[in-house]
Amino acid sequence: MRCEIVAVGTELLLGQIVDTNSSWIGQQLALAGIDCLFQTKVGDNFGRIEAALHLALERADAVVVCGGLGPTQDDITRDVIATVMEVELARDPEVEDRIRTMFEARGRHMPENNLRQADVPAGARIMDQMPGTAPGLVCPVGPDGAKVIYAVPGVPYEMEQMVGGTVIPDLQRRSGETAVIRSRTLRTWGQSESGLAEMLAPYHDELEQSGRATLAWLASGIEGLKLRLTAKAASADEADDVLAREVAMLERLLGDLIFSTRDQSMEAVVLDQCRSRGLTLATAESVTGGLIASRLTAIPGSSDVYRGSVVSYATEVKFDVLGVAHGPVVSGEAAEAMALGACRVLGADVSVAVTGVAGPAELEGQPVGTIWAATCVKGDAAATSLRLPGDRERIRQFSTIAVLNLLRQRLIAS
Amino acid sequence: MRCEIVAVGTELLLGQIVDTNSSWIGQQLALAGIDCLFQTKVGDNFGRIEAALHLALERADAVVVCGGLGPTQDDITRDVIATVMEVELARDPEVEDRIRTMFEARGRHMPENNLRQADVPAGARIMDQMPGTAPGLVCPVGPDGAKVIYAVPGVPYEMEQMVGGTVIPDLQRRSGETAVIRSRTLRTWGQSESGLAEMLAPYHDELEQSGRATLAWLASGIEGLKLRLTAKAASADEADDVLAREVAMLERLLGDLIFSTRDQSMEAVVLDQCRSRGLTLATAESVTGGLIASRLTAIPGSSDVYRGSVVSYATEVKFDVLGVAHGPVVSGEAAEAMALGACRVLGADVSVAVTGVAGPAELEGQPVGTIWAATCVKGDAAATSLRLPGDRERIRQFSTIAVLNLLRQRLIAS
Question: Which of these, A138, A276, A286, B321, has the minimum number of CB atoms within 10 Å of its CB?
Answer without folding.
Answer: A276
